[in-house]
Write a structure and sequence with these properties.
By secondary structure, this protein is α+β, with helices and mostly antiparallel strands. The chain contains nine helices and 13 strands. The strands form four sheets. Strands 3, 4, 6, 9 and 10 form a five-stranded antiparallel sheet that branches. Helix 4 packs antiparallel against helix 5 and helix 7 runs antiparallel to helix 8.
Length: 255
């Protein structure tokens, strides 16, 4: 079953408050395993905002344990309009790996050959070389952006972790730098985001784009209502937002 909403989760009510008040989602770098389809590299740090389209009744099946018990459910039409896209999952030695490996490898080979050509030719060919070089760099950039929408099917090192079950969608700001990394450690991710979050990318939404405001327990609803009451929006908007609150505890009991 496919959900009619895109869900974004976070760990605490305070972060949920910041998102709702600002009406925007902040991108963060996530580090993806690109071994197998990118020459001589292991990991790639990619800025993104992540969502899932798991049906509401199933979101508490492991997903909230990993990504947090507070969240927002957005209308899927809003996501599609803003370039949010479901990702591809790759298995080891798959055709996807082979195709991207060929794309990146051949692009790099052409670039190397062009550098040799430039050194051996007269200056009159420089402008032609620069045009070709620009095209090659555009291809390399597209390959990196494409990598932002590909994830391993399962983690061979973490037994039982199957990412396909996450049904992930992503918003990836295309012009922001993608960073090769030799490590996918938690500290590496923290260090990269510490710099990035000084001037991050944001994905904007309106309150009308929301279908659900998700909290963990019934007792959290009172706190959420109080927070919404403090927002600098109209009373009508506050009422509409409060009506969208739903708790995971009730979802587990009634759906």
């Amino acid at each position: 079953m496919i959900a009619g909403s895109l869900f974004h989760f976070t760990n605490d009510l305070k972060t949920l408050q910041i998102i709702l008040e600002s009406q925007r989602l902040r991108a963060s770098y996530n580090i993806e395993d690109i071994r197998g389809f990118y020459p001589d590299e292991q990991f790639l740090a990619i800025p993104m905002v992540c969502f899932c389209d798991i049906p509401l009744k199933n979101v508490s099946d492991n997903h909230t344990e990993i990504y947090g018990v507070f969240g927002l459910g957005f209308k899927k039409v809003w996501g599609i309009k803003n370039g949010i896209n479901p990702i591809m999952y790759r298995t080891e030695n798959s055709f996807i790996e082979q195709y991207i490996l060929t794309l990146t490898g051949e692009t790099q080979s052409i670039f190397v050959e062009l550098e040799k050509f430039k050194k051996s030719q007269e200056l009159k060919f420089v402008s032609e070389f620069e045009n070709i070089n620009l095209s090659i760099n555009n291809l390399k950039s597209c390959a990196l952006n494409l990598a932002g929408f590909i994830k391993i099917y399962e983690d061979s090192l973490a037994k039982g972790v199957n990412y396909y079950l996450e049904r992930e969608w992503r918003w990836v700001p295309g012009q922001t730098e993608k960073i090769f990394s030799a490590s996918n450690s938690k500290q590496t991710k923290i260090d990269i985001n510490k710099i990035y979050h000084k001037n991050p990318d944001f994905l904007n939404f309106t309150l009308d784009d929301l279908r659900y405001v998700i909290v963990e327990k019934k007792s959290d609803i009172v706190a959420a209502v109080s927070l919404i009451g403090s927002f600098s929006i109209s009373e009508m908007e506050k009422g509409m937002l409060i009506q969208k609150i739903i708790d995971i505890e009730s979802i587990n009991q009634d759906m």
